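Q: What structure does this chain adopt?
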Amino acid sequence: MRAVGGPGASAGRERVPAAGPEPLATASLAIQRAARQAHRQADGARRRREVLRRIDGVLDQLETRHIAPGEEADLAPLELAAIVRGLAWVVQGPLPGPVQDAPSSYHLHLALLAWQSDLLDLVVPDRRRRFPDLDSDGDEPLVPAPRSVRRRAAHASGVGGQPDR
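A:
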């Protein structure tokens, strides 16, 4: 309890109760909840960034494989399944349907690009406004180019061997 009034106050001072433990406990609880929420948000952002890093690594692997000269560019079904399982392990949950059901490495590549774009929109919500030159045309489904076109493109960039004629 504390006395109210200053110097010269009457001898029969009025007593005002001091702040009890309830407001402190309420404030402490609110701080703990806010800290847990911030921790959950940080964990979610960290997980999304890890998924983006894994997707980027798989995209690099697929792009290298697809333009390698003299090698069958498409992955064997077991290799494709292993990549999808690895992604599912990182995500710790279900993968997008097009990624899960990709029938070839070319389709997986396209599905990963779309998924990567969606995740980037979550991680950087205003990226399309900040970077208006991004390709935001997602209306048409992407289809892998025929192998002869891919080989000519690889040859023109100096990566591949002889183009198909």
